[in-house]
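Posting for a labmate who doesn't have an account.
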Amino acid sequence: MSFSDLDRSYEEWQSPPVARKTSVAGITPRRSAPAARPHRVAVVAFDGVVLGDLATPCEVFGRARGAGAHSPYEVRVCSVAPRVASEHVSLAVPWRLSELRRADTVIVPGIDDIDRPVPDALLRAIRRAVDRGARVASICSGAFLLAATGALDGLRATTHWLGAAELARRHPAIAVDPGVLYVDNGRVLTSAGAAAGLDLCLYLVRRDLGAQAAAAVARAAVMPLERAGGQSQFIVHEPPAADGTSVEPLLAWLEQNLARELSLPAIARRAAMSTRTLSRRFREQVGTTPALWVTRARVRRAQHLLEATPLSVERVAAESGFGSATVLREHFGRIVGTSPLAYRRSFQAP
C-alpha cells in the first residue's frame, strides 16, 4: 500500500486537534564532551528504501563537527544483501547488518510501499538494537518497520501524515500523533515525512553536541535549526466526498455559506431536524459534531484565502466565518499548528 492509497481515508480518521511541533520525553538537548571514539550511526537500507530518507542522516551526521573540528560520528549504511533496489536506482551497500550490533544510533529510513515484504533478518536486527539500549530512530514510513518489531508498543509515535491512520489501524498499541515533526521517547524516536527527517537528525546532533554544532549543520544544509509549526500545516484537509448520505446536501450548503452564523439551531433549521437528531446523524454519517465540522471547514477556507489572495488576516477571518482575527488565530493554531501569517509566508502562491 503506497501513500497515495492512504490519502482518501486520512480526513475520516483525523478529526481531533493535532499536537504541537515536537514531542519529547524528558530529554533536554545537551553538549557532550568529545567521545573517545566516534559515535557510530548505522543507517539501514533495504529494497524499496526512500532515497531522500537514506541520504538525510548520512549528510547530517557526516557534516557534524565537534570540538577541534573533529568528526564525532562514524556513519555506515548497512543492509541484508550487498545490493538493494530503490524506486529509481540500485545501490551497492558496503556494510551488513552486523554493524547494528555495535551501533550507538540506528536510523530506519522510509519504505516506498508499506505492504512491501521486509526481511525478517532486518526486523530482528533492529529489535536487538532496541533491546540492548541503542538509540533507534525512524524517518517517515520507516515507522512501519520499527512498529513491526514491537519497539513502539505503548509509546507515542509519528509518521508521514498520509500514513498515520494506517499505522494506528495496524498497530493499536501505538499512540499515533499525526501533527508533529518528530517524537522523542528517549531511546526510540520517530519522525514525519521527508524534510522532517532533517528536523529529527538535527535534533539528535543538538542532543549530542549542543546547539552550536547543530546550527552549523543546519546552515550547511540551508535549513532552519527549528521549524515553526508542526506537520499539521502540511496536511491537506479535503472536504468530504459525495457519498449519497442524507446529510450530504447539508454539507454542501454549509461549505457555500461558511460566512453565515452557523450555530447548531441554525444548522438544524436548515436541515429541518431537531438539534438532537442533527447531532446524532452527523455523528453517525460524518464522524464528528456539526460545530467541529464547521470549524474545520472554515479553517480549510481560511487556508485557501491565505494561499491564493492578498486579503488581510481580518478579512480572511470574516470571509471564512470566524468573525475576528483573534478567533481565526485560535482555531487556526489549534488545527493547523501555526499562525495564519506564518502559514501564508510558507504557502502563498507568487
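Reply:
Got it, the C-alpha cells are right above this. DSSP finds 14 helices and twelve strands in the chain.
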